[in-house]
Amino acid sequence: MKIALIIPIYNESRTIAGMLAQLDSLPGDWEILFADGGSSDDTLEQIGSRYTLLHCPKGRANQMNFAAGHASADVLWFVHCDSVLPKDAHAQIEKAVENGAQWGCFHIGFDYDGPFMGCNTFFSNRRARKGIAFGDQGIWVGKDRFDKMDGFPALPIMEDYEFSRRMKAARIPITQLPGRIITSGRRYRGSFPLMTMWKMFYLRCLYRSGVDIQIIAKKYRDIR
Predict the structure, then answer these.
(1) Are 174 and 103 in contact (CB under 8 A)?
(2) Model pLDDT for residues 194-203, shown as the tens digit of each residue
(3) Which SS3 state, helix, strand or coil, does residue 115 take?
(4) Cβ–Cβ < 8 Å for 183, 110
(5) Domain segments of the chain: what residues?
(6) DSSP-assigned beta bridge partners for residue 109
């Protein structure tokens, strides 16, 4: 089974080398697509001609949708450039799809072991089991289903949250795979992690309440 591994990028000079090293040794039949939103550093030079590089307007949802439209594989896997991927990701996704799963994610871990981060990890994985996956958990989905859902909504933030909500509303069950993606804990460093967790929860409450998405996006940038 060929799986399209889609990575949206923008000025990733500090993380791209680590991702490329992973991809060079990642087992499985992959169609690897980088979707660049207009990088001005040396990200593109580091990628070179090793993998397919697509150029599109900046915006994570737009970049992921653009790459999905160019993918030829039947399954799409969206990952962040600063994530550490499970070595057996291909085998896990393939097995799930063969067993009838239409979409899912992985368990999450963080590269920061600060106070309350264990609590953060627990509730992040618990949320995913209940059908709400975020992008840093490596959302994967059948291309046909992705197209039927019109891809990720064109939002500056919360596109993964809204996509999950729509899948849940359509009663399409999520499959959380046992593998673990390690993601950056940078937003929790230098602050009280519990407060950051509360702020992220608060932003989701604002979104569900219909607050202007641009206001939410600004608040999110302040947290980052």
Answers:
(1) yes
(2) 777 888 889 9
(3) coil
(4) yes
(5) 3-186
(6) 182
